[in-house]
Write a structure and sequence with these properties.
heterodimer, A: mainly alpha, Formate dehydrogenase/DMSO reductase fold, 2 domains, B: alpha+beta, Alpha-Beta Plaits
């Protein structure tokens, strides 16, 4: 039924008074149907300058080859694969929100899934660009596909994790795109039916002729559920396979069986941090405080805490196994993270990811927007250093001390990295301009059951346990979008 | 003979819409279709829409994808060009799993979604067949084929009594064509 009553003790997912279906549409489409404000223009200018830098640095790499990077024969993977794993990891939160939370019927996902999925797609684009760049001769990418060729045919080696990666990342990108776009259709139709002229034509093509008829919705829900069902193991497989790029090697520091779960947890951890970084700004700038509420922020912080702690346990396990294995190379690699020349990178990794995240145990911190935002940036930095430590610190001191080396990034390395962030934000800012950043149809589903006004109505009707009502009112005090005066507090 | 093609009952609340469907059914008025801005759960049962069979399609596409890539891997690695990697067998099944899994998911997702688009007639550029422009915004619309369902006034009254905020007698089937 459309309006089953939800227990009063559950916190509202949509706040604000007089939120009607029409108001949901108006609020969410405001940035799409109007000229952008100054904040958007400033952000877009900075981001697109970054994207231009990316275009320039990537073109430079294609022209002169990866000799323009700081790699040497000891450290053959550095910022490129660090950046790749970092971006793929960031992407994972979007699929977790859109697929896994859908299967678990977590309704709070409804207002953040759209932008998180968009973030996934843009992050995977950045990640894929790193893979193509580090090939040196990007046109050779065709040989990662099992296509007949003039060498015999010489086929790709399906025993190699790098080939598994090609399959995993390409499937992940295309299925995420499909899931995201299918979910967008009803909202594109909403924009179409409100627009005129050329905008109407464009959104008409984009919305595939969606009408919202009974059977369309019914099948749409089946499709979304099954897509969520197949995306869930998919997202777990992707970072598992990424971790196998390392775990199936014989390199101390890489050759560990804990890598798949550890990488998946780290991916979700960093992804939620990026969602938090983006949405805390988006809700403020686009005025979506009633839809992305303090409940959402706190819930995401809790996930950051849980996954951050899992990552912490994985770190400890790695150290214990290095000690317990008795392998001296293994032991040296892990000791080297603290006493070697890259001790500062190790400190960034363990400090940002494990120590700083533990602050999230405090409710005051979890519900403080500014602190949450800073912490989300800290996690992003920490997770970048995690990959840097795993890749560069493990490689730079190999089995023969005469070949030990340091890695010094060139300006091309730095430009590609900064540029990829610019590229990501350019795409994200364009997304919030032309597409609804919140899934309108899904938020409308929550109005009659989980909104603040529905709960108010429930309270006005009476028949509720006074204790539960008190509990509910108490839980509202953390919200920044609730008029507490209405509750006589 | 009236020129009305469709009678639309516009509701502003999904529960009232469900009530409206009940009232129409009670009076044996056949419902052409229902257009809503969001999925309404429970409406399929009322209108006797059978559960979607897209799940079967998804399953078949999944099997197809898995078999396809497994066959490709088998042909390339075992049949066409077996490699001696440390004397290990060429038919190394564990190594086949990642690619097989990925293509199972890929074919499931795309096969099912394309089937969905095909069955529901969705494709880029299709002219939207919209009966009321607010049906994708904040109106829950019941459409009744005017032809054969007379008198129209009775249907209008049923809808009004059921709580429709607006009743339209559309002369054109779809308002979205220019």
């Amino acid at each position: 039924m459309a309006s089953h009553h939800e227990s009063i003790i559950r916190e509202p997912l949509v706040t604000g008074e007089n939120i009607t279906y029409a108001k949901v549409t108006d609020d969410i489409l405001k940035p799409v149907e109007n000229m952008p404000n100054k904040a958007w223009w400033i952000g877009f200018t900075v981001a697109s300058l970054g994207a231009l830098l990316w275009v320039f640095a990537v073109s430079w790499t294609f022209w002169y080859g990866i000799g323009s990077w700081g790699l040497n024969k000891t450290v053959g993977w550095a910022w490129d694969i660090t950046g790749f794993v970092w971006w793929v990891g960031i992407g994972h939160a979007g699929t977790l929100i859109s697929a896994i939370l859908l299967l678990f019927r977590q309704n709070w996902r409804n207002s953040i899934n759209r932008s998180a999925e968009a973030m996934t797609i843009f992050a995977v684009i950045c990640a894929a660009s790193y893979i193509v760049c580090h090939m040196g001769r990007p046109w050779m990418a065709v040989y990662s596909l099992p296509l007949p060729n003039q060498y015999g045919s010489l086929w790709v080696n399906f025993n190699s994790p790098l080939i598994w990666d090609v399959f995993a990342i390409s499937t992940y990108f295309s299925v995420s795109l499909l899931f995201w776009y299918t979910g967008l259709l009803p909202d594109l139709a909403t924009i179409r039916d409100r627009a005129t002229g050329i905008r109407r034509r464009i959104y008409s093509i984009a919305s595939f002729g969606w009408t919202g008829s009974l059977k369309t919705w019914q099948r749409f829900e089946t499709v979304c559920l099954i897509l969520a069902g197949v995306s869930t193991p998919l997202v777990l497989s992707v970072h598992t396979i990424v971790s196998m790029d390392f775990a199936t090697s014989l390199e101390p520091g890489w050759h560990t069986t804990i890598f798949p779960p550890y990488f998946v947890a780290g991916a979700i951890f960093s992804g939620f941090a990026m969602v938090q970084t983006l949405l805390l700004v988006v809700r403020k700038v686009l005025g979506l405080e009633n839809y992305i509420t303090m409940f959402h922020i706190e819930a995401m912080n809790k996930i950051i805490l849980v996954t951050g702690s899992i990552v912490g346990v994985a770190y400890l396990t790695e150290f214990f196994i290095a000690y317990y294995s008795g392998g001296e190379y293994e032991q040296y690699t892990f000791l080297n993270r603290f006493i070697g020349p890259y001790w500062w990178a190790g400190c960034m990794m363990y400090g940002c990811n494990v120590l700083m995240t533990q602050l999230m145990w405090f409710k005051k911190i979890r519900t403080n927007i500014h602190v949450s935002w800073v912490l989300s940036i800290v996690v992003n930095i920490g997770m970048w250093f995690e990959r840097f430590v795993i890749i560069v610190t493990s490689l730079h001191r190999d089995f023969i001390p005469s070949s030990w080396a340091m890695f010094y990034p060139t300006w091309i390395d730095v430009s590609i990295f900064i540029g990829s962030i610019g590229l990501f934000f350019t795409m994200f800012l364009l997304f919030i301009r032309v597409l609804p950043s919140i899934a309108m149809a899904e938020v409308k589903l929550l109005l009659k059951s989980s909104s603040e006004q529905a709960k108010k109505k429930l309270m006005a009707e009476g028949h509720l346990e006074p204790q539960q009502v008190e509990f509910y009112k108490e839980s509202l005090t953390k919200f920044d979008s609730v008029e507490l005066a209405d509750y006589k507090k | 003979m009236s020129s009305t093609k469709f009678i639309l009952g516009l509701f502003d609340d999904p529960d009232v819409l469900l009530h409206g469907i009940d009232e129409l059914k009670k009076n044996s008025v056949p419902i052409y279709d229902v257009y809503t801005p969001m999925p309404i759960h429970g409406i399929e049962d009322k209108l006797g829409v059978k559960p979607s069979r897209l799940g079967y399609a998804a399953f078949m596409f999944g099997i197809l994808g898995g078999t396809t890539i497994f066959s490709i891997v088998y042909y390339t690695l075992v049949h066409d060009w077996p490699m001696n990697i440390g004397g290990k067998p060429a038919f190394a099944v564990p190594d086949f799993i990642p690619a097989t899994f990925e293509w199972t998911v890929l074919f499931t997702a795309f096969g099912m979604t394309i089937t969905f688009f095909f069955a529901t007639h969705l494709f880029p550029g299709r002219a939207p067949r919209v009966m009321d422009l607010r049906a994708t915004d904040d109106r829950f619309v019941i459409a009744i084929d005017a032809k054969g369902n007379v008198p129209h006034e009775d249907i209008t009254n049923i809808l009004r009594e059921a709580g429709a905020v607006e009743i339209k007698h559309n002369d054109r089937k779809y308002v979205s064509y220019e």
